[in-house]
Amino acid sequence: MTATTPARPHAAAPGSVDWVSCPSCGWLLYRKRLDRNLSVCPECDHHLRLGARARIALLADDGSFDEHACPPGPADPLDFTDLRDYRDRLHEAAARSGESEAVVLGTARIGGTPVVLAAMDFGFLGGSMGIEVGRRVSAAADLALQRGLPLVTVCASGGARMQEGVFSLFQMARVSHAFAQLHESGLLSVCVLTDPTYGGVSASFATLAAVLVGERGAHVGFAGPRVVQETIRAELPSDFQTAEFLLAHGLVDRVESRAELRPLLVRLLELHGRRPAPPPAAAPVPAPEVPRDDAPAGDGAEDADAWDVVQRARVAGRPTTLDYLHTVFDDFVELHGDRAFADDPAVVGGVAVLDGRPVVVIGHEKGHSVRERVARNFGMPHPEGYRKAMRLMAHAETFGLPVVTLVDTPGAHPGPAAEERGQAHAIAETIMRSSRLRVPVVAVLTGEGGSGGALALCTSDRLLVLENAYLSVISPEGCAAILWRTATAAPTAARAMRLGAAHLRASGIATSVVPEPPGGADADPLAAAGLVRAALVRELDELARLDVGTLLGTRAARLARIGGDGDRPLRVVGPAPEGGGGDAAR
C-alpha cells in the first residue's frame, strides 16, 4: 500500500497556466480563483472535468487516502494497431495523466467513516474500460467485501476500450458480478456519475450502485448523442443525457453541485452506518393478535360521523408526508426515481433517522397549495411511483432497515398513460413485495386511503391510523354514484361502508389509533407529529425483537385473520372509537 495525501482545495491539474477559458461560456478565468471554486466556472456554473486524484482530494478526509497498489496485467492482449500501436497509446496516456491506468483506488475516510474509494480518470484514454480497469474496479469491490466497508466510486468514461476487443466487453460482466456480491452482502455502494460517463461503464457498475448521484451538468448515457443522431437520425432535446435529464426520468437518486457531493456522501454513510441500540431487555414480544388499545381515542373520535371524518381527512392544511419527514424524523435524505422511467412526485421516499434508528420512509405526497397539488398530481401515483416504492423497499431489505410508510392518497392515478405503463401490475407487485419484506414494516394512515392505491403502502406488520383518517375500497362519491345512482349520496355511502378509525380497529385491520390534537392534525401539526413519532418509536422497538421467521409468520397470520378468517375471531379490547372516511381510485 502506498500512502498519498492530496490536498483538497486544488482541483486543477498541476502545471496549468494562470488563466483558463471556460469550455462552456468562454469566460477567461483566473486559475487560482477557479481552484478555490473547485473547478466550477463562477460565471456559468459549468463543472470542469477533474482527474482521479483531484476527485479523491475533493471527497476524502485530508490525509486519509491510502492507495491500493494493483500489479500490472496484460498490456496489449490483441497486439492491436490502428494508426498507432496500442502500447504507444498506453505509454502516452500514462505520461499525460500521471497515472498507470484509468482507475485509482484505495481506502479512505469520508466524514470519519472508513470506505473504499475508487476514482476514474478521463485523462487516461478517455477513462475507457479495458481489462485493467475491470480488474481495478473489481478489486475495489473485493476490498470492500473483505473489510466490510462501503464502496464509493467516481465514474468518468467514454465507454469500453476498443483496442482490447471482446476482452473489454466482458469486463462489464466482471464488474457487474462484483457489484452483485456487494448487494448480497448488504454493503453500501455509491456511484458518483461525472462528465462524461458512457458506454460499457454506464451499462455496468456505474448504474448498479445502491445510490446513484449525478454531478450537476454531467452527461451520462449508453450511446453518445452523436452516435444516437447518426444511427437513428433523431432530434434530441437540449438537455439530453444530462444529470438533470436522468433525475427527471427516474434514473438517478440525486443531482448535486460539486461542493455538495462530499456533504451528501457524509450523510449517506452515516445513515447507512447507524445501528440503533437494542431495546431494553424484556420478555419476548409476540405480534399482537388483537387490535391495540394503548392509544387514546382523541378529540371526540368515538362520536365522529363517517362523512365528517372524510371531510377532515381531505383538509388541504393537513400535514403531508414531507411535513412529517421534517417534524417526526431527525434526518432525511430523499432518493429519487424508479430507475426505469420517471421520478413520480406523488411518492417521496428515502433514508431517515428516527430516535437514533435508521429507517426507509416512503409516502404519498399531495402538497398544500393548488400549484403544489397539481405538481404532485394530488397525491395520486403513477406506476413509476409504486416502482419507486418497491426499489426503496428492496433498499431497506438489503441494508436491514425497517420501513415506515405514510399513506394519504385519493387513489392511484386512473389515466390511460398509467394503464399503458402497467398500473395494476405495479400496485400488485408492490403489495406482494411488502407482504414478504424481511424487515419490519409500519404503515401510518395519515389522511385519505383510497383503494388499492393506498393499500400498496398499507401492507404491513402494524397499521396505525390517525383519528381523522380513513381507508376505503372506493371513494364515497364513487360508491354513491354506482349503488345509489347519484354522487350526492356520498355521506350515506360513507356511513354504510363504516369508514373511519373505529371500524378499522374493531375489525383488526388497524393495530392502533393515533390520537390527533384538538381540532385535528391541521390545527396543531407539531403536536400531531409528536404523537406519530411516539407511536412509531413504540412499534419499531417492539418489532425489533422479532426474528425474520417470526416477523413473516405473524404478518401472514394477521393478513389471514382479516375478515374473520383464521383459527379464532378477533376480539376488541376496551371501547373502540367510531368515525370514518374514505376515498379511492375510480
From TrEMBL:
Bound cofactor: record note: Binds 1 zinc ion per subunit.
Domain of life: Bacteria
Compartment annotation: Cytoplasm
Catalytic reaction(s) noted: N(6)-carboxybiotinyl-L-lysyl-[protein] + acetyl-CoA = N(6)-biotinyl-L-lysyl-[protein] + malonyl-CoA
Keywords annotated in UniProt: ATP-binding, Cytoplasm, Fatty acid biosynthesis, Fatty acid metabolism, Ligase, Lipid biosynthesis, Lipid metabolism, Metal-binding, Nucleotide-binding, Transferase, Zinc, Zinc-finger
Known cofactor(s): Zn(2+)
Region (Disordered): 276-302
Uppermost EC category: transferase
Domain CoA carboxyltransferase N-terminal as annotated: residue spans: 18-287
Domain CoA carboxyltransferase C-terminal, chain residue ranges per copy: 287-542
Chain positions of all zinc fingers (C4-type): 22-44
Ranges of Pro residues composition bias in the record: 276-289
Metabolic or biological pathway, per its Swiss-Prot or TrEMBL entry: Lipid metabolism; malonyl-CoA biosynthesis; malonyl-CoA from acetyl-CoA: step 1/1
Protein EC: 2.1.3.15
Binding site for Zn(2+): C22, C25, C41, C44
GO molecular function: acetyl-CoA carboxylase activity
Stored Gene3D superfamilies: 2-enoyl-CoA Hydratase, Chain A, domain 1
Subunit and interaction comment: Acetyl-CoA carboxylase is a heterohexamer composed of biotin carboxyl carrier protein (AccB), biotin carboxylase (AccC) and two subunits each of ACCase subunit alpha (AccA) and ACCase subunit beta (AccD).
Free-text function comment from the UniProt entry: Component of the acetyl coenzyme A carboxylase (ACC) complex. First, biotin carboxylase catalyzes the carboxylation of biotin on its carrier protein (BCCP) and then the CO(2) group is transferred by the carboxyltransferase to acetyl-CoA to form malonyl-CoA.
PANTHER family, alphabetized: ACETYL-COENZYME A CARBOXYLASE CARBOXYL TRANSFERASE SUBUNIT ALPHA, ACETYL-COENZYME A CARBOXYLASE CARBOXYL TRANSFERASE SUBUNIT ALPHA, CHLOROPLASTIC
HAMAP family per the UniProt record, alphabetical: AcetylCoA_CT_alpha, AcetylCoA_CT_beta
Family per similarity comment: In the N-terminal section; belongs to the AccD/PCCB family.
Protein name from the UniProt record: Multifunctional fusion protein
